[in-house]
Write a structure and sequence with these properties.
Catalytic activity: L-asparagine + H2O = L-aspartate + NH4(+)
Radius of gyration: 20 Å
CATH superfamily of the largest domain: L-asparaginase, N-terminal domain
Number of helices: 9
Structural class: alpha/beta
Strand order of the largest sheet: 4-1-5-6-7-8-11-12
Keywords: Hydrolase
InterPro entries: AsnASE_II, Asp/glu_Ase-like_sf, Asparaginase/glutaminase-like, Asparaginase/glutaminase_AS1, Asparaginase/glutaminase_AS2, Asparaginase_C, L-asparaginase_C, L-asparaginase_N
Strand content: 15-25%
Low-confidence stretches: 344-348
CATH architecture of the largest domain: 3-Layer(aba) Sandwich
CATH topology of the largest domain: Rossmann fold
Shape: globular
Protein name: asparaginase
EC number: 3.5.1.1
Distance between the termini: 46 Å
Number of strands: 16
Length: about 350
């Protein structure tokens, strides 16, 4: 019997009707009871917390990371399944992937339909996740949803309600689950795990905020998050990662003060690329913003957060930047638009 541990955190897969809407309520054993268990598996359940995933905090995510590591101290465990709400599943999965260095898989799954809905997607997703956790050695942290296996890095929620809720806009699935077996299409390129350095007693976790550029935008929101004590900021640019000269100047001041700044894009598909000046990614990279490659905004924020947690509270700005640069190098994608010969392209 292969042992798989299910860590339950809530979300739609654990939700019931509350009179005016759905909310996470069911424990892990109830969620597991809704699904068939693949033959030959011994499944144990850990009830970690039961919340809607829109309420997940960094503290929740670090508790999940600690629990996964604790579960994997048992050599009899073949893999771990995390049941999680779909709203922030992509963020928790990516955070764990950056710190996960065990060959045994951690498989995230959830549901688009609540627990007690007839013919809902929870049983199938959980069955597929259990199967993947039992055989996905050396695949790292993955997301299993609607019959597909996705790499944590780059995979995001692409539809609010449809069963096929997750995809990597810039990549392809790792595998598929059908007819009671997992077919691997490719293996992820696992990068070395980051070291976790948490603040001591009384210390606070780093604050990382997201600011989106739009027509008519000024520096008000960027100034506000910096005044609130943000140690990291994700600027979500237009197009391939563009803003304005005023915002570029504000980013320069933030970087000079030791704040980590990463540049993402509000466009669904394609990489961030240093192609344009006039406040574009060329100027933003020149003043110290690091380009997020193919990562969307939520996972770019996780990259910044993980870099701060890895560098530790005593690290210098240069040390923090070096960690983030290494993390983002794994998400880099060469843009299809070429730059004229002899010109300079700034990149993370």
């Amino acid at each position: 019997m292969r042992r798989v541990v299910v860590i339950s955190t809530g979300g739609t897969i654990a939700s019931r009707w509350q009179g005016e809407g759905y909310a996470a309520q069911a424990g892990g054993s109830e969620v597991l009871a809704s699904a068939p268990v693949p033959e030959g598996l011994d499944v144990r359940v850990v009830d970690l917390f039961t919340v809607n995933s829109s309420r997940i905090t960094t503290a929740h995510q670090l508790e999940l990371l600690r629990t996964v590591r604790e579960v994997l101290t048992d050599p009899e465990v073949a893999g771990v399944v995390v049941t999680h709400g779909t709203d922030t599943l992509e963020e928790s999965a990516y955070l764990l992937s950056l710190f996960h260095d065990d060959p045994r898989p951690v498989v995230f799954t959830g549901a688009q339909q609540p627990l007690e809905v007839a013919d809902g997607d929870a049983p199938g997703n959980l069955y597929d996740a259990l199967l993947t956790a039992s055989c996905g050695r050396d695949t790292g942290v993955v997301i299993v949803f609607a019959g597909l296996v996705h790499e944590a890095r780059g995979t995001v929620k692409v539809h609010t309600l449809a069963p096929q809720a997750f995809a990597d806009p810039c990549g392809s699935p790792l595998g598929r689950v059908e007819f009671g077996r997992v077919t691997w299409l490719r293996r992820p390129d696992r990068t070395p795990a980051l070291e976790l350095r948490l603040p001591g007693p009384g210390g606070r976790l780093p604050r990382v905020d997201i600011v989106m550029h739009h027509t008519g935008a000024d520096t008000l929101l960027l100034d506000a998050v910096l005044a609130a004590g943000a140690e990291g900021v994700v600027l979500v640019g237009t197009g391939a990662g563009n803003a304005t000269p005023d915002i570029a100047a504000a980013v320069a001041c933030a970087v000079d003060s030791g704040v980590l700044v990463a540049l993402s894009t509000r466009v669904q598909t394609g990489p961030v690329a240093a192609l344009y000046t006039g406040g574009g990614a060329v100027d933003l990279a020149a003043v110290g913003a690091l380009l997020s490659g193919s990562l969307r905004a939520g996972q770019t924020r996780i990259a910044v957060l993980a870099s701060l947690l890895s560098a530790g509270p005593a690290a210098t700005a240069a040390e923090r930047t070096d960690v983030l640069r290494r993390v983002l190098d794994g998400a880099a994608v060469e843009p299809p638009l070429s730059v004229p010969a002899g010109s300079r392209r700034s990149a993370a």
